[in-house]
Amino acid sequence: MRRSEVLAEESIICLQKALNHLREIWESIGIPEDQRLQRTEVVKKHIKDLLDMMIAEEEGLKERLLKSIAICQKELNTLCSELHVEPFQEEGETTILQLEKDLRTQVELMRKQKKERKQELKLLQEQDQELCEILCMPHYEIDITSVPSLEELNQFRQHVATLRETKASRREEFVDIKRQIILCMEELDHTPDTSFERDVVCEDEDAFCLSLENIATLQKLLRQLEVRKSQNEAACEGLRAQIRELWDRLQIPAEEREAVATVMTGSKAKVKKALQLEVDRLEELKMQNMKKVIEAIRVELAQYWDQCFYSQEQRQAFAPYYTEDYTEDVLQLHDAEIVQLRNYYEVHKELFEGVRKWEESWRLFLEFERKVSDPSRFRNRGGNLLKEEKQRAKLQKTLPKLEEELKTQIEMWEQEHAKAFVVNGQNFMEYVTEQWELHRLEKEKAKQERQLKNKKQTETEMLYGSTPRTPSKRRGLAPSTPGKVRKLNTTTVSNATANSSIRPLFGGTVYRSPVSRLPPSGSKPVITSTCSGRKTPRGVKHGANEENLELNGSILSARTFKGFQI
């Protein structure tokens, strides 16, 4: 049984006890029956009115609850539609009071969400408006009369975040460009003369409109200023080069040069003006020292002629170089010629350097070739002979490779310029071929001269005999006594060519008998070897003595003389 039912029964019992007590009181007082009946009717009426009033109040409460439920249900449906969420569904059976409470709680929650979304939408709109005004971009399109959905708010947030990033990047670019513009203006001594330039330089950075158009205009302004700055720097460098050239030509002392050293750096307007004044002063001084300047230019001109491998005909083609009239016209002609030569050298510098490298290698190669035919080179000290042989072998490999590289470069240059590349008035590759041919002819000539000399010497020795020679001692061989030469019945014969001599193994002297001449019949001479009885040192090689000497049809073998070369 519910407590409410128990309380109802107790209420009935209390009411009965109260009525019984009233009857006892009425009886003790002696109230008649009719009055008791009236009084009982009054009690009944009071109780009934009280109960009716209570019932009416509870019925009113019920009606209010039902009305509140209907209102909350209607508002909740509207809020769910505005917030784009699913309608509220009560789970399971519930009482009127609980249903009203749940609906009222849900309505309050929906109202709060709606208010928060509206507030966030308003805040995003304010931020979007501020950013769009700075960036000069259109506002974000969204329906402000309705409640935005969560997805719409998320998209709006991303849009505002993108605008912030765009603003930050453009602002950073603007600040950087502004800094460069200010530096260029200071370098050029330029004062802002347009409203846009004043807005960039003078106004607050936050007030500047960061539109794409303004950024593009800023970049264009910076490029213009940089071009002017570059032109100014080039002009200043040109003036400095002109000043240095005039200093060298006029032989200006160092003390006077240091006086203008402060303007030899930088490119500001005042620096350019000071450089121009110095150039004007030097030009006036140049006119006063015409001969000295022209002679200095001629020295530089000759240097460029050498660097460009000009032939004598090409040099003589510039007639003003040889005149003795030192006038302003002659000076102008020299200036024009030196400018032309300087440009010509810079354009072909790589080729000229290659030609110069080939010539140096060629001279070194010829020097090694000359040393090869020099017998004194065998008197080697400190391993120089080995070094020379290594360098000579290296040159024999690098020279053809260098010639091929130059040939390829020259062919490309000739195709590009549609003219021949000449060195000393001659095609370079023809010049190289000619040098090799001259070298070959010189070697042939030297060989023929040696053969002729050897032939004459052989004929002389055949007629008159050879003269005694005392060879120098060789390193690494033990000394021997010249007197201890074994004498044989036959005559000792020693032969030598024009470029070599026979050296005894033990350092003794070999004497050639004046009567030991070839017999008229051309019979072979008797060969007698001289030795001191000692063994040949191990350091002497025996495989190099395989040459034969031919004397009037007779062959004298050199194998007998072990240990020395012929």
Using brief descriptors, characterize the structure shown:
566 residues, mainly alpha, Methane Monooxygenase Hydroxylase, Chain G, domain 1, two-stranded antiparallel sheet, disordered C terminus, coiled coil, microtubule binding, MAP65_Ase1_PRC1
Describe the structure.
- The protein has helices spanning 3-29, 33-83, 96-135, 150-188, 195-201, 212-250, 254-258, 269-288, 290-307, 312-316, 328-347, 349-372, 384-417, 428-464; strands at residues 422-423, 426-427, 548-551, 554-557.
- The protein is an all-alpha fold.
- Among the domains are: 3-88 and 95-107, no CATH class; 150-267, no CATH class; 310-460, Methane Monooxygenase Hydroxylase, Chain G, domain 1, CATH 1.20.58.1520.
- The N and C termini lie far apart (149 Å).
